[in-house]
Specification:
Layout lengths: L6 H8 L2 E2 L5 H15 L1 E5 L5 H9 L24 E4 L15 E6 L11 E8 L13 E5 H12 L1 H12 L19 E2 L11 E2 L5 H5 L9 H15 L6 E3 L6 E5 L3 E8 L2 E4 L2 E4 L3 E7 L1
Parallel strand pairs: 1-2
Antiparallel strand pairs: 2-10, 3-14, 4-11, 5-10, 5-14, 6-9, 6-11, 7-8, 12-13
Amino acid sequence: MTITEDRLARTVQDESVSAAGRTVEQTVAEAREVVGRNRICLVRDFPLDPDRYLEFLGAFGEPLRNYSSLSELAKTDPHPQINRVKYKKKPEGAQSVHYVAGGLRPHSARSWCTPRPAFFAMLMVEPGWREVPAGERGESVVVSWYDLFTRLAERDGAVFEEHFERLAGTPITFRANNVREELSDLPLLYPLDDSRGRYDVGVRLKQDLRDKIAGIEDQLPDAGAYRKSLDYLLDASVEDGLFSCFPMERGDLLLLDNHRFAHGRQKIVGEYEVDGEARTNNRELWSVTVR
């Protein structure tokens, strides 16, 4: 998918905010206007400084402690509230999702927990390898749930409505893999106080939720039907033409409404060998969840 073919990707980039030569307060003021309008904002040329990053995000809520600080996995994060997303080779044992290669399915930040975090942010520190083919450069993926559900309703009619009603009407509780926090019992699709329409709902989606379902089937009145509805949602979120995709450059900060958008990425190549020497992709992104 190219940027020019996608409305949301065009909007995000055309209405980006520049942080160059501005104070954090000035950048916040302009970003707040864009977020109020679009629920998502791209800030260009943001300083690669943890304190200024957190100062910016603090204007939108409370930056939460990072995932790794709450887990037993090894971590090398730049700040207790920042997750470093960077490929790290690990020969065996559990590995944080922040260190793996490959792609990441669209998902919500801290999908398991309550209260629901309001925002999610990503700051690109180093874009990494760009000489690999498109779709293998770690391009950012964003899904607008309102846009997706509106399009699915038009395309699939009663089939969509059945799945939508089931996912919006079935409370469900699941855990993170390595993090322990207070768990939500909301449906995957939940109502919002400031909703602009029937399909403007919050969505909490764990990227490996298919694997989690097997252990929580006793929660579900009809586990088989629920799995079909979940598969429908997951498949639609990665269907060509139904998600937005664009590269982030060094200093790009993407702030999005965690209720209304999912985030993910295209595949990245973790390493390759040149003349018998292994080279590792230096792509690095700092993510923060904001409540």
